[in-house]
Amino acid sequence: MASQQDIVLHWYPQSPYAQKIASILNYKKLQYKTVEISVMEPRPLRRPLDGGYTKTPILQIGNQVFCDSKSIISELEARYPEPSLYPVTSSGHSSKTLAFGVTHLLDTSVFMAIPTQFDLELLPKALLEDRAKMAGRSFDPAAQKALQPFLRLELQAQLGRLTQGMQHGKGWILNTATPSDTDFSLYMITFFMNMVIGEPWVTEHYPILTDHFERMQPFAQPDRTYDMADISAEDALQIAKDQQSVPAIQSVGAQDLLRIGQQVSVTPMDTGKTPAIGELVALTPQRVTIRTRDDRTGDVYVHFPLTAFLVVPVKARL
Ligand SMILES: N[C@@H](CCC(=O)N[C@@H](CS)C(=O)NCC(=O)O)C(=O)O
């Protein structure tokens, strides 16, 4: 292992998922660097680090790169367990299973209901085309505008159910003494709604969400992210090259399906279905790790969660 590995968040500030990860880095009092990337593809200088994965954020630690917030969070929690994102509940049980369920709901169904409220006519055409490609369908701004009030009813139905057990001024979603992963996801949801629909609407209709968002501020410390050194994409590649290490992961199972050393593709199963391709170096029940190589970076190990990702030998790509 390299003795000192820099943590580098590849983000753009408008990305709710990137804000979630930045807030967790801040909560865990970690020192990190940021690379501000473009809000859309192409990102040629990110490619040597992500193997082809196109979503945001990714977290680089030396020459190890973690893709998708699930893999980023599990790595951060393993390396820096305190303060934990999975505190025990008031009844003394682990919050992990609950966090998996409610965070999943927030990150999928609730999250996807929010961009329906964008005024697509105001977005740059190139960005719209990029997001249509990511979603795997075309966008019709006029049709979306006509449907918007009806789609808002659906969003409000979800928010109404979500907030029914919350208490104003106190408590965390999973009944823990300190915020859990799920509170950071809800923070991200409110951040996203404030950006898309506007803070006054959110506060008028869901004062409980604004209250939760405000109570999260001292933990998430959004201003602290800007105190971190912002480096160039080239500097991030150099960090990978200078800080070479081999991950110590014991592969478990599935050897009958996938062979260590073979070329595999790793593809998100929801949106942004662009495969990352590399040599399979490790597979565990929760994680897949591939290796890519580039003159600018040396070996890069790219880690993905297995939940919501499909790993197949390259010949049988999705
Ligand atoms: N499942 C992913 C979702 C990440 C995601 O959807 N990110 C959005 C930005 S918040 C994205 O990648 N947008 C397209 C892009 O940045 O090119 C995660 O948990 O990290």
From TrEMBL:
Pfam families for the chain: GST_N_3
SUPFAM superfamilies (alphabetical): Thioredoxin-like
Segments crossing the lipid bilayer: none
Domain (GST N-terminal) ranges: 5-84
UniProt xrefs under InterPro entries: Glutathione_S-Trfase_N (IPR004045), Thioredoxin-like_sf (IPR036249)
Protein name: GST N-terminal domain-containing protein
Organism: Absidia repens
